[in-house]
Amino acid sequence: MKKILLLLLVGNVLSAQNAELFNNNWYISKIIDNGQTTTTPAMDIPLSKSDFIAVSGSMGSGYAFNSKHFNSCQLEISFASGTNSFAKTNAACTLSMYGGNNQTAVNNYDQKHQNFYIIPMTETFTYEIVNNSSDKVLIITKNSNGDKIYYNNTNSFLATKENLLKEAFLIAQNPVKENLMIEHVEKGMPFQIFDVTGKLISTGETSGEKFKIDTQHFAKGQYILIIKGSKPLKFIKE
Q: Which CATH number is 165-237's, of 2.60.40.10, 3.40.50.410, 6.10.140.1670, 1.20.120.530?
C-alpha cells in the first residue's frame, strides 16, 4: 500500500510540474547555437508539431519528447522531481535530406536541431515556459553548453511565409485512387511528394499543363505535393 501511495504521489508531482509541456503543441521557432541565433527557415512543407507524451511498454511507464523540424528527433526522457529539467536516456533522429526551396538553409538548420539533441549521448536539459500576450514560448537549454531551442505553441509565424508562395496548380480529384491528376502547371517543374512524417515518397518533373502521377504503390493516407515555386497542397490516397 505504501508503495502504491508513493507512486501516485510522484505521478501527481510530475503531472503538476509539467502540465503545460504536455498540454500544448510546440513549433520550433529558433535555435541559439554557440551564441549564434538562427530563426526557423521557410520550407515547402508545413512545420509539424513537437510534443511531450507519456509512454508505456514492457519496461514500464515513462516520457518522450518528439522534436520536429524537417527531420524528427525522439527522446526518451526522465524528469528530475522538483526542478524544471529532464535527462535524456535515449534518442534517435530520422535522417532524410530536404530538397525543396531554400534547401541549404533548411538542411543547415535541421542539422543544428539534430545535433542539439543527439550530441552528446547523455545530456540534461532545463526548460522554461514564458507567457506572451497571445501565445506561449518554450525555451529548452542544453546544460552542457548553454545552447537553446525555442518553440511557440502556435504555428502562425510560418503561415505568412507559406502564403508568399503562389498556388498555381490544381489537384483535379481528391481523394485519389490510382493516379493523381494535376492541372495548370508549367512543363519541366520539379515536384516532390512527402508523407505526413516528412518522408520523401516520390520525385519527378511536370510533363505539361496537365499530367498525372502514378499513386498505385502509395499506402492509404495523407500526402503533401510540392511543385517548385508553388504552395504545397495536401491530398489523400484511398
A: 2.60.40.10
For residue 50, the 8-state DSSP code is B
Nearest to 40 by CA among 106, 100, 111, 129: 106
Instruction: Lowest mean pLDDT of 2-16, 79-93, 195-209, name the range.
Output: 2-16
Say what the pTM is. Answer: 0.64
What is the Cα–Cα distance from 38 to 89, expressed in whole angstroms? 27
Amino acid code (one letter) for 59: M
Dihedral, CA of residue 38, residue 43, residue 45 and residue 51, to nearest 10: 0
What are residue 112's phi and psi, to 5 degrees?
-60, -40
Residue 160 — φ and ψ, nearest 5°? -65, -40
